[in-house]
Write a structure and sequence with these properties.
This protein has 15 helices and eleven strands. It is an alpha+beta fold and 420 residues long. Helix 1 packs across helix 13, helix 2 packs across helix 13 and helix 2 packs antiparallel against helix 14. It starts with a helix and ends with a helix.
Length: 420
C-alpha cells in the first residue's frame, strides 16, 4: 500500500501543479508532446511506405529476380564514377537479345528487358502536353508486373521484335492528352531531351495500386527495342527481370541463370562475374536501408523534443522543490524516508512527461488521419511506436527528474523547516 499511496500522491501533486501553473506546465510538456508526435507520425509514414513497397513487390513475386551489369543493391561507391572505378562503368553493359536466351533456360517462365528512363520526359498530342515516366520493356512485362489493360491491348512480341512504334499509356495520360476521346489508335509524340519519337497508342494500362503509382500520375510503356531505336537508350540503364516457373526453386533458377550469363559473357572458369543477380530479398534489404535513414531522422528529431521537454522538467521540478521546502522538512521530521521523498518527486516528473506524451499521441493520431485522407499513402500507426512513445515519455521524466528529486531528498530537515 505504501508504494501505491506514493504513486497516487505523486500523480495528484502533478495534477495540482498543472492546475496551479498551467502556462509553465504546458510549456514544460510541450517538448515531450512534439517528440512523441514526431515518433508517431514518422513511424506511421514509414510503416505505410513499407506496406506500399510490399504491395509493389507482390505482383512480381518473391522468386522474381533481376540481372544487371552491376549490383545496384550494394549501395556502395568505391571510387569516383567519372574515373571508371565503379562497377557501373567497369562492367560491360548487357545485350538486349540475352533476355530471350534467359527465357529459354529450363525452369524460367519469362525474362524481359527493362529500362527506366525516369521522369521529366514529355508526351504530347495536338496542343496538350504531360510530363511522363517512360519505360522501355519487353512484351512479357505485363505477366511479371501484374495490373490490367483497361482499353485496347498490350504490344505483342512481334511488334517488339520489329521495333514497331507503338506504346501503352496509363489512364491519367490518356485523359491528359485526349480527354474523353478514345486514345486507341491515336498518335502521340514522346520527347526525351533532344530526342523525339511519334508512336501509336495501342492500349491503356492500369498498374497495381500502390503508393508509388499514386505519387506519380503519368506513365508510358514502349517496347524496349523501339525505345532503343527511337530514343537512343543508354545501354547501361538496361536490366533483365526474370521470373522462374512456379515449381522451380529459386536457388536452382539463380544457379542456372548465373551459368547461362557466364556463357553469354564468355567468362572462363575462375574469372569473377562481371554482372549481378539481385533477388527480391536484396531489394527489400536495400529498401530497409533507405527507410532506416528515415527512422534515424525520426529518432533524432524526437530526441531533440524530448530533451527540450526534459530540460523543462528540471526547471519546473526545481521550482516545485523550492516551493515545498518546508513541506519536505516537515515530512522528514515526522520520519519520512529519503527514498519515499525521492520517489514521490520522480512520480510527479514522470506524470508530467506522460501527460505530454499522451497529448502528442492524440495530436499524432490526428495528423496520421489527415495524411491518410489527403495523400495516397496509407499511414499505419504500429503498436511498437505507441509503446515506445509512452515509455520514452516516462523515462524522460524519470531521467531528468532525478536531480530535482535527489535535491529534495537530500534537504536537511532543520534547514528546510526554517526556510521562508
Amino acid at each position: 500500500m505504501g508504494f501505491i499511496a506514493t504513486v497516487t500522491e505523486g500523480i495528484a501533486v502533478a495534477f495540482d501543479s498543472l492546475g496551479a501553473n498551467k502556462v509553465r506546465s504546458g510549456l514544460t510538456i510541450l517538448g515531450v508532446t512534439i517528440g512523441v508526435l514526431v515518433v508517431m507520425v514518422m513511424a506511421a509514414v514509414i510503416t505505410g511506405i513499407n506496406n506500399s513497397f510490399s504491395e509493389l513487390m507482390a505482383p512480381e513475386g518473391i522468386t522474381t529476380f533481376w540481372v544487371a551489369h552491376f549490383d545496384f543493391s550494394s549501395m556502395q561507391i568505391t571510387g569516383p564514377l567519372d574515373e571508371g572505378e565503379h562497377a557501373f562503368f567497369k562492367n560491360p553493359p548487357l545485350e538486349p537479345e540475352w533476355a530471350k536466351e534467359l527465357a529459354r533456360i529450363p525452369g524460367i517462365q519469362s525474362a524481359v528487358s527493362v529500362v527506366n528512363l525516369g521522369s521529366g520526359n514529355e508526351a504530347s498530342s495536338g496542343g496538350d502536353r504531360v510530363e511522363i515516366g517512360l519505360y522501355g520493356v519487353g512484351a512479357d512485362y505485363i505477366e511479371i508486373s501484374g495490373g490490367d489493360v483497361i482499353a485496347g491491348r498490350w504490344f505483342t512480341q512481334s511488334e517488339a521484335d520489329r521495333r514497331t512504334a507503338v506504346t501503352v499509356i496509363d489512364s491519367a495520360t490518356a485523359v491528359g492528352l485526349f480527354g474523353t476521346r478514345d486514345p486507341i489508335g491515336r498518335d502521340i509524340r514522346i520527347s526525351r531531351g533532344s530526342e523525339n519519337a511519334r508512336v501509336r497508342v495501342v492500349g491503356v494500362y492500369r498498374a497495381p495500386a500502390n503508393l508509388f503509382a499514386g505519387l506519380a500520375s503519368h506513365y508510358v510503356w514502349m517496347p524496349f527495342a523501339t525505345t532503343d531505336k527511337l530514343l537512343r537508350v543508354w545501354d547501361r540503364e538496361m536490366s533483365f527481370v526474370v521470373r522462374p516457373e512456379p515449381e522451380t526453386e529459386l536457388q536452382t533458377a539463380l544457379d542456372a541463370t548465373r551459368a547461362r550469363m557466364r556463357q553469354l559473357r564468355r567468362l572462363r572458369p575462375g574469372e569473377d562475374d562481371d554482372f549481378a543477380i539481385i533477388t527480391a530479398d536484396q531489394v527489400v534489404a536495400l529498401w530497409g536501408q533507405l527507410t532506416g535513414v528515415l527512422f534515424a531522422a525520426m529518432v533524432g528529431l524526437s530526441s531533440i523534443g524530448l530533451m527540450v521537454g526534459g530540460v523543462g522538467v528540471i526547471g519546473i521540478m526545481m521550482i516545485s522543490v523550492t516551493e515545498r521546502t518546508r513541506e519536505i522538512g516537515l515530512r522528514k521530521a515526522m520520519g519520512g524516508r529519503r527514498g519515499d521523498i525521492m520517489w514521490q518527486f520522480l512520480v510527479e516528473a514522470a506524470t508530467l512527461t506522460l501527460l505530454g506524451g499522451a497529448t502528442g499521441m492524440l495530436l499524432g493520431g490526428g495528423l496520421v488521419w489527415v495524411v491518410n485522407q489527403a495523400t495516397p499513402l496509407t499511414a499505419v500507426v504500429p503498436l511498437w511506436s505507441i509503446v515506445a512513445a509512452l515509455a520514452a515519455s516516462v523515462l524522460t521524466g524519470i531521467g531528468f527528474g532525478l536531480y530535482p528529486a535527489s535535491r529534495a531528498a537530500g534537504l536537511d530537515p532543520i534547514d528546510a523547516l526554517r526556510y521562508e
